[in-house]
Amino acid sequence: MATIQKLSNSFSGALRTFSYWIANGTVGLPLLEGIDYSCIFEEPSALEQAYAIFANVIEMDEVGIVCNAKYAEMRAAQYIRSYVDSSYKVEPEFEDWEIDLY
């Protein structure tokens, strides 16, 4: 019989916080400070990609404690910035595993 596992409280909190910051316009500061990225709410695939990057990059230790929430947020913010500002160059460039949609 398979054991059902739930996401950790730490991951749940990191995802909730990321969602709150996206919704209120404060994700990815200072990278997105003063940048209106509200257009991603009108393009579902752009918002989907930002969440995919956050989820693909985030790491947890063996007991489910998130180790790199700010880094995962920053990578998602880099994507958002590149989406709304075609002159912005993501550094380092995204690797395939960071942008995969599962």
Q: Would you kindly provide a written description of the structure presented here, covering whatever features stand out?
A:
This is DUF7677 domain-containing protein. Pfam families: DUF7677 (PF24725). InterPro entries: DUF7677 (IPR056094). This protein has 102 residues and is mostly helical. Helix 2 packs antiparallel against helix 3. The mean pLDDT is 96. The chain has 4 helices and no strands. It is 49% helix and 0% strand.
> How would you characterize the largest beta sheet?
none
**Number of separate helices:** 4
Mean model confidence by pLDDT: 96
Find the count of extended strands (DSSP E, 2+ residues). Answer: 0
> What class would the helix/strand composition place it in?
mainly alpha
Radius of gyration: 14 Å
Instruction: Indicate the proportion of strand residues.
Output: under 5%
Give helix and strand order, one letter per element, not per position: HHHH
Q: What oligomeric state do these chains adopt? A: single chain
Mind sketching the topology for me?
Blueprint: H1 9-24, H2 44-57, H3 69-84, H4 96-99
Helix pairs in contact: 2-3
Which features does this protein show?
DUF7677; 4 helices; DUF7677 domain-containing protein; mainly alpha; 0% strand; globular
Question: Could you write a compact summary of the structure shown?
Answer:
With 102 residues, the protein is an all-alpha fold.
